[in-house]
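Journal club prep — side note

Before the paper discussion, L.F. wants everyone to see what a predicted structure for a comparable chain looks like in token form. Sequence:
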Amino acid sequence: MNNPRNATLRALPEPPTWDARLARRLVTPLVGTPITPNHLTTLRLLIGVVGAYYLSVGSFWACSLGAFLIAVSNFVDHTDGELARISGQSSKIGHFYDLACDSVVTVLLFVGLGFYVGVHHPSMIVPAEWLGGAAGVAVALIFFLRMRIESLAGKTGTKQASMAGFETEDVLYLLPVVTLLNGMTPFLIAASIGAPLFAVWVVVDYQRVVRRVARNTASNAGDKDADGQDLQAVQ
């Protein structure tokens, strides 16, 4: 990673989403300071872990605070990448650290939700803790496979869909509203169904990428063999 003291501001196109644009404006003054993208990633992790803990306590107001912290953590997640881009401090280790922290926070989020719902609905047919665990495991699998897809097909292979400046993950900004409306139980049930289904889709997509990479590799190897044979024929 580059030395932050030697970093200079790079002119780049505006990010496509509103939170990334705001994050870039906030971190621009940090270029050239001792603060690195990894510092911001660690901050995002700490806020997210504390938020997940408060979600799991079972108290309504603690859950509301936890939901707010999760939303803040989701926003801070954009600051490290923006600082890395505009300061030229991007690195593979930093990118992996960012993805790992994303996975940890998201898994703990759903586990915390499971404990919260379990306190208020202990007689559910399927224990709420199990639902949170199922959603968390599915999310962990999604993050792992997306990392694998990115290593095979590049970042474009894992780019999230966006529309009107919003991405899929922006639904986490609604978590405090869901909490205030006492909607955590249906939110958890929806996540316990939706996350595994999306994980299945990611598994299928991963297999598709693996097959495509294998075909391209075989094709390139065939081209090289053909070139070698043509060269021998000329000689």
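L.F.'s comment for the group: The beta strands are 162-163, 166-167. Keep this in mind when we get to the figures.
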